[in-house]
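Input record (one chain):
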Amino acid sequence: MTAARVDDVQRQLDHGLARIDPHHRLLGRPVSYRIVDGRTLEITFRDVAGIADAEVLGVKKILGKDCYFTVSPQTAESVTVRFVVPLE
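The corresponding structure, as predicted from the sequence alone:
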């Protein structure tokens, strides 16, 4: 079930980011997926120049309202954006 849910989340992001990210702040950035404790999925976007509330809300709409996000500095010019999604 977990692998199928992860595939579903990846597919939703692949299709949804093009619609909600017109400035390509997340689209095309390095992204990694990591399962935490078998119950949550952490999605990490690196080398993001900046992120607006509209993009965050768009991703939350794609992933579900139960997901959480954090933004942390990576370099002086970029941030790392993480979304945590429950798999159950």
